[in-house]
Amino acid sequence: MTEVQLIQLPKIIDDRGNLSFFENQKFIPFDIKRVYWIYDVPGGEQRGGHAYKTLNEFIIALSGSFDIVCNDGVKETRITLNRSYHGIYMPKMVWKHLENFSTNALALIAADDEYNAGDYIRDFEIYKQLKSGR
């Protein structure tokens, strides 16, 4: 699953508190058109469980930790995010869900387009068919 990338963001260390950031086309390979966050996830719950036809995302654990489970239709990979200076570039057509949220976890997601319900693929079997070209 070479399309999904862990990206290390700049980390400016300061006695008053550290600072990290990302910018359009500089640290992430797209221009940001929407930002949203996921928080207060009850224990044992998952978020996601879909793929996007055209949307690309960048996901960061601003606080706490969670796992991203990615599937390309053949192989499944689990990535733990637990540092606010690491993010995952999640390209279009990768099935994913987020799970194992720690207490007070905060997931920030930057996307390259506005919300579009028609862009979602919510059935894994249909997703696999689309990936295989059937």
Written description of the protein model:
The protein is mainly β. Helices cover 7% and strands 43% of the residues. It has one helix at 124-132; strands spanning 5-8, 11-12, 19-20, 34-39, 47-52, 57-63, 66-71, 76-81, 86-90, 95-99, 106-111, 120-121. The strands form three sheets. It has a five-stranded antiparallel β-sheet with strand order 1-9-6-11-4, with no helix packed on it. A five-stranded antiparallel β-sheet has the order 8-7-10-5-12. The protein has a two-stranded antiparallel ribbon with strand order 2-3. A hairpin with a 6-residue loop joins strand 2 and strand 3 (19-20). The longest helix is centred in the C-terminal third of the chain and has 9 residues, at 124-132.
Structural Rg: 15 Å
Count of helix runs: 1
Portion in strands: 35-45%
- H/E order of the elements? EEEEEEEEEEEEH
Q: Which regions are unreliable across 5 or more consecutive residues at pLDDT < 50?
A: none
Distance linking N and C termini: 20 Å
Strand tally, please?
A: 12
Helix content: under 10%
Overall morphology = globular
**Helix- and strand-based class?**
mainly beta
Largest sheet: 5 strands, antiparallel
**In which order are the strands of the major sheet placed?**
1-9-6-11-4
| Average pLDDT over all residues | 94
